[in-house]
Amino acid sequence: MTLLPGSAPRAAETPQCYIDNSWWCPPYWSDRQELLTDALVQHIWITIASVALGLVLAFPLALLARRFDRLETLVVGGTTIIYTIPSLALFSLLLPATGLSANTVIIGLALYSLTILVRSLLVGLRGVSDDVRESAVGNGYGMSRLLFTIELPLALPVIMAGLRVATVSTVALVTVGSIVSYGGLGNLLLQAVGNQFKAQILAASVLCVLLAIVLDLLLVVVQRMVTPWTRTGASV
Amino acid sequence: MTMMVDAFDYLFDGANWSGSQGIGVFLVQQLLLTVTALGIAVILGLPLALWAGHTGKGGFLAINLSNVGRAVPVFAVLLVLALSDPIGSEQFGPYGRAGLATLIALVLFALPPIITNAYVGIREVDQDIVEASRGMGMSGVGMFRQIELPLAMPVIVAGVRLALVQVWATATIAALVAGPGLGRIITRGFANERTSEVVAGAILVALGALLLEGLAVLVERRLDPLRVARQ
Questions:
Q1: What string of DSSP letters covers B123-140?
Q2: Of residues A187, A213, A190, the one with CA closest to residue A40
Q3: What is the pLDDT of residues A96-109, one digit of tens each?
Q4: pLDDT, tens digit (0-9, with 9 covering 90-100), for B97-147
Q5: Which of A13, A186, B112, B141 has the highest Cβ tally under 10 A?
């Protein structure tokens, strides 16, 4: 590989790893710090927006599916079908409606996260024991108070597990959004397809995996904070 | 809506299907890649995972493999493989440009669901039944073949089905590194700013995925011994 990266800095002394086009090139990380930060920031907000939108859509869908048995097959089956469609195709199918914007990626990824989120919401809510529900109703709890103060908190461990899976896979899938120029770190990867700039490929890939791990750990911490009873070992 | 009409016009125009850059070539490439990669992944992963499930060894790895697989972007893996020295992005037989890199990436992404499901499937067989079969004097091999494998079959096959869909999706992404497969129609449409071509490619890929999933569900039902026995 003798190809020089197209945009190597014109410093008096070009670092050897630029000339060799090596995978590991520490100067790249400092030279392109701004580029990497911008891509990372875009990656993070697209991920958060997608999962948040997915959660907002999944919540009413799961409640409807729980209430009406017939809808459950439709909702669970429908979201599974969406999940089957490859990301590149899904973004492209959304393109005529949403254009070359971040919305294409966010809506597409939100649709994917639906599959996991709706299921974990359903499983979590189903896991609440009928005894608990009955005692709450006996104590005069209304439907919404029952849902928000009893059922959801008890379902939280399962819901959070689903949220973690959805978040981690969304981080990886954002890279495909580079096809509409909103792929966060994926944009750097697509750029590197042309100029074969290995240092950039490695940096973007490593950051992407690190981001998935960090967000996953963050959600674990959040889960531990919002479900203190699961730590004490006391039965609910 | 005119976009959809244009896309179908594109698909129904026979001229777009022929030639070295036609839909036909890319479709064959994608099918070939999918079948080959899934076959390799099953041959490599299934025996290992079944053995691990039977003996109860390597469970931590088998279960966490899927989590790791989810976190790693396909695009990045493809790109790294295509630019790594011995693999490269040369033409690879009938698999097309960057065929070898694509094939390796596909196998890597097919392995986690196959291994995790096979392991979990065997492990979750009712231990009372396993104990009973041991009490009846069944050997390890007999227990595995007559008890564990049939009972775990639905979960194992579900893993292979998941892998199949995953492989098809990944083969599409190969187009991002100018690799083989139907994704090329999409990326070509983007490059030429022809949205109808982009949508046409997306329709093909999506239909292919749904079709494969549907077929896999049918096979899955055939392979579930309990369901077959009931009929």
A1: HTS-HHHHHHHHHTT--H
A2: A187
A3: 889 889 999 999 99
A4: 788 899 999 999 999 999 999 999 999 888 899 889 888 888 888 888 888
A5: A186
Query: Which amino acid, one-letter code, is at B132?
Result: A
The interface pTM score, or ipTM, of the predicted complex is: 0.85
Whether residue A187 is contained in a domain is answered as: yes
Burial degree of B81 (CB within 10 A; 0-12, 13-18, 19+): buried
CATH 1.10.3720.10 fits B2-230, yes or no: yes
* Residue A229 falls inside a structural domain: no
Å between B71 CA and nearest CA of chain A: 5
Measured from the Cβ of residue B200, the count of other Cβ atoms closer than 10 Å reads 27
Is the minimum CB–CB distance between B193 and chain A shorter than 8 Å?
no
DSSP-derived secondary structure letter, A5: P
Domains contained in chain A, number: 1
- Do A89 and B202 count as a contact with CB atoms less than 8 A apart? yes
Structural domain boundaries, residue A83: 29-224
Task: Give which of B53, B82, B50, B41 is closest to B166, Cα–Cα.
Answer: B41
Task: State the first-to-last Cα distance of chain B, in angstroms, to the nearest integer.
Answer: 46
CB atoms within 10 A of CB A37: 11
Residue A60 C-alpha, separation from nearest chain B C-alpha, in angstroms: 26
B79 touches A: beta carbon within 8 Å: yes
Written as one string, the DSSP assignment of A51-72 is: HHHHHHHHHHHHHHHHH-HHHH
Contact B195 A85 (CB under 8 A): no
Q: Are the Cβ atoms of B177 and A193 closer than 8 angstroms?
A: yes
Q: Indicate whether A207 belongs to any domain.
A: yes
